Amino acid sequence: MITRRDFHTGLATMALASLAGVKLSVARETREDDLFLNRLTFGANAANRKEFSRLGMRGWVEQQLAMPAQDQALADRLGKVRLLIEYEKGRTEEGKPWAALSEYRSLGYLGKDPAEMLHLLDFDEPLDFSERDRPAYEVIVASLVRAVHAPAQLREVMTQFWHEHFSVNSTKDEVTAVFFPSYDRIIRKHAFGNFRTLLGEVAKSPAMLAYLNNDTSRASPANENYARELLELHTLGQDNYFNDLYDNWKTVPGALDGMARGYIDQDVYEVARAFSGWSIGDGRELDDGSYAPQTGRFHYIDRWHDPYQKRILGIEFPTNSAPMADGNRVLDMLAAHPGTADFIAAKMLRCLGIETPGQSYHQHVADVFHSQRNAPDQIAQTLRAIIFHDEFTATSPGKMRRPFEFLAAIYRAAETEVSPRTDAFQWMLQQAGWRQHQVNPPTGHSEHSVDWANTAALNGMIRVALESHSEWFEAEAGSLRTPPKGVNNFGGLASHWEHRMNAPTGALDGVFEAFEVEPDTPLWDGEDLEWVSNGMIAVLAVTPDFMFR
Amino acid sequence: MAKDPVLVVLFLRGGADGLNLIAPSGDSDYIAARPSSLRVVRKGDDAGHVLSHQAADVDFRFHAQAGGLSELFQAKELAVIHAAGLTDGTRSHFDAEDRMERAAKGATAGGWLGRWLKDADPGGELPALAVGTSAPESTRGASNVAVAEELEQLIIAAGHDLAPLLRDRLNSGFGNHDLLGAPVKRLISLSRSLQARLTNPATGEFGPYRPAVGYPQDNELSGPLMTVAQAIKLDLGLRVATVDFGGWDTHMDQMGAFADQTATLSNALMSFWRDLGNAREQTCVIVMSEFGRRLRSNTSGGTDHGFGNAMLVLGGTVAGGRMLGDWPGLANDALDDRADLAITTDYRHVLGELMARHMRVKDTNFLFPDFQVQTRGLFT
Q1: What is the phi/psi pair of residue B335, to 5°?
Q2: Of chain B's two ends, which shows fewer C-beta atoms within 10 Å, N or C?
Q3: Could you report the per-residue pLDDT of A119-143, keeping only the tens digit for each?
């Protein structure tokens, strides 16, 4: 176990006091295990606290990093989910009918090869649109189950991180929906791996190709949508976009010495040319009347590619390179660029709760990311650089849980069995500003706490907490309806939830009146008990202690 | 007594194609650069609405789906400032939005609306409302901004039987928390006053907003604009409202998507304006976007990120029915970077004039530091 180091130095305590205001964390120390667990998982709970204490911090982190992307128990759990699909009868344009349907159906698309799902893209098939975008909703619902129940929590946290980084609106249209399960698999698989590999998989993923229109990009003029976001959101970042400073590639620092330090619009145009022809094998009709193959995978259309010389970040690309060589070379350059390391390091730190790292901490993480760029476990090594640094423990909890993280943390702390029957939770999260896998602009959700500290997110999260165990929410299977073991009155119930939610003893004093009970009132059961328990959980969730990690 | 002026900032996120919204439909460079599907055209079912016969040489027209905008223009309540925008060289959505909404370089804190809200500290229950689920960058720095899609969302746990308990806990639990202290206080106070105003005393239920005119159905802008209209009419002291309207990033298959977006904008804005009734006199709406789009279309039937764009100002006291600003033309040499509509009016001239003349801000220098606002004659 590591020591608490300077976490309890006077300075840190003072910072904490000013942050917390009245009587909050000043008197309470954040437990060291929770400091790690709330950042590296979707929420500390009894089970992972026990694991953490058994293995020690480093042992626990290594165990997490060693866990594979597949887990049988989790797969079994996902196999039991039955998600509603419901629609009216209808007809195709040619008049082929489909029948009305309402059924609770298993998540059959999660592991499926997209080649077997291409009929969902065929508008001659009599299918309601709910059938066509069903694959996306299966991933959305599965993501909550995974966040709450996956043993490989750190992988799940990083999967969510990369989904946000390489954000795709899964229900933009039927193409993104059909390819979203395979996109989710790519991201989860490489969540701890090599960034260049992940970047390449994303660049060739039909979901991203369709989302940012590169699937229709051909010479000339090429479609710039993907090219621009590749530079701005996926690799170099906005800080390395120098277009306001330079309007000629030669003048960008570094451009004449092997590699420009940042990019300008001229680079965007050239990168767009490099990716022209990168499309999807989904059987679509091409401009010359031929059809793309039905592979359900990346498909390169050579005659759409702009083959002539290019200059990107000051580097010359020859004419008529081999198929896909231009695009692959761009990805090589960007993944190896120090600007990318800076950008990704800051984002990973923010994801793990460090919003304002010191310069040397940030630099250290960026250096590891950059120096390990060819390592198969580059991202895992970068995670270690973040987690095992003094400043990680010295930074007090100041990162606000965002709505999805907040909901998952409630379920984890309450040890609720989550098995959604509808996507009602998604609708509720939207009131708080969260659209899991359905963000329209390619930026994903904001990672900055300040963007969530507003009346809408706050009141939305209150609502999420209050409804998290209500029946209509249909996200859990009534686990609050039986009295917890050994608890026989409401005072005992309050202590039980204070303990589970890691709140101070007595945090629920004074709530009994609202439930019209006394502490020594014998416990009810069934829905009435569920209502009280959920109310107590909500009261404990809507506190700075629980909302910040 | 004249009521305090209200400013509504409607931001078209994604880079709205001003050259498809209000365009010189007869200009030969325009016709040469784009297929007719991405142009405002002069003939046929989709012919655009003529702005003014005075500019007949290039025949400026509104998009066919912008009938509402055209009507407001003819009624002299809507002014167009074309070839306007952010002159910093950026064609990134997020960078351009950031820069425009901050409207300041270097160490100047916050956004342009945030600086005004902080300085003027207008008081009232609801001085600023960001319609949506997050506040735009322009309001950054102000602690008096409420964020909600509907006013009912500012009532704590509306209709839930545990609402009083949660309200008490919020009241005692957050204190001066540096991130949540201010939003918690605002939520508690707004919750109290809205509960009283929106609840039907007979039934105890929330009464829905009843606009004075119908708003278009299936129109994503109707709800947000109704929220603004309701907030103005409730007399909560609203001075600034922001509404975001996304979906303008038309890199691909622009024709249908742009027509739908334009109809949504035009129809909802028309209803909003009628709904306001007498409050029109005190209200101005500015419609803006982070940049326009490339003059030449791409091979996906769309347009990529461009530069200059049109801004629209709608107001009871606006000298409308005019297109302001210099039109640079679309000849190759007149374009920015030989690619995009050039900018002849810095967007801050327009915002500055609005703040000075409509919002009655004496000195706008602190809103737009290191910038000299020159009026464009929005208000005669």
Answers
A1: -80, 155
A2: N
A3: 999 999 999 999 999 999 999 999 9
Q: State residue A29's pLDDT score.
A: 59
Task: Tell me: do A304 and A236 sit in the same domain.
Answer: yes
* Final residue belonging to a domain, choices A341, A373, A396: A396
Domain identity same for A343 and A451: no
Quote the CA–CA distance of B9 and B351 in Å, as a whole number: 10
A425 and A374 in a single domain? The answer is no
pTM greater than the 0.90 cutoff: yes
Say which residue the tokens 């959305």 belong to.
A140
Contact A454 B300 (CB under 8 A): no
Nearest to A20 among B153, B177, B305 (CB): B177
Last-in-domain residue among A372, A396, A420: A396
Q: Are residues A460 and A374 in the same domain?
A: no
In the CATH hierarchy, which top-level class contains the domain B6-151+221-358?
alpha beta
Q: Return the pLDDT at A290.
A: 93
My answer on whether A432 and A308 are in the same domain is no
Q: Answer yes or no: is A54 within a domain.
A: no
Q: Does A455 touch chain B (CB under 8 A)?
A: yes
Structure tokens at A59: 């042992």
Residue pair B324/B275 in contact by the 8 Å Cβ criterion: no
> B-contacting residues of A 13-52, CB under 8 Å?
18-24
* Partner-chain residue, chosen from B95, B147, B172, that has the shortest CB–CB distance to A454: B147
Whether residue A266 lies within 8 A of chain B, CB to CB, comes out as no
Identify whether residues A364 and A439 lie together within a single domain: no
From chain B, pick out residues whose CB is under 8 angstroms from the CB of A20: 175, 177
Each residue of A307-328: pLDDT tens digit? 999 999 999 999 999 999 999 9
| Least Cα separation, residue B191 to chain A (angstroms) | 10
Which pLDDT does position A26 carry in this prediction? 38
Are B180 and A544 a contacting pair at CB < 8 A? yes
Tokens 């009435």: give the residue.
A528
Handedness of CA A398, A403, A404, A407 (dihedral sign): positive
- Which residues of A fall within a CB distance of 8 Å from B147? 454-457
Number of domains forming the structure of chain A: 2
Of the candidates B133, B164, B177, the beta carbon closest to that of A457 is on B133
Contacts of B92 in chain A (CB under 8 A): 228, 232, 238, 241, 243
Domain range enclosing A530: 398-549
Q: List the domain boundaries for chain B.
A: 6-151+221-358, 156-205
A271, A288: one domain = yes
Distance from B268 to chain A by nearest Cα, in Å? Answer: 21
pLDDT tens readout for residues B218-254: 999 999 999 999 999 999 999 999 999 999 999 999 9
pLDDT band of residue A12 (cuts 50, 70, 90) is very low
Mention every residue, 6+ apart, whose C-beta is less than 8 A from residue B141.
B109, B110, B111, B114, B115, B117, B118
Residue A433 structure tokens = 């500003």
Torsion, Cα A187 A190 A195 A198, to 10 degrees, reads: -50
Q: Can you tell me the distance from the alpha carbon of A93 to that of B19, in angstroms, rounded to the nearest whole number? A: 34
Is A23 within 8 Å of B13 when comparing Cβ atoms? no
CA dihedral of B27, B292, A231, A304, whole degrees rounded to 10: -30
Is residue A495 a part of any domain in this protein? Answer: yes
B359 has a pLDDT exceeding 90: yes
Q: Do B302 and A23 touch (CB under 8 A)?
A: no
Whether A232 has its CB under 8 Å from any CB of chain B: the answer is yes
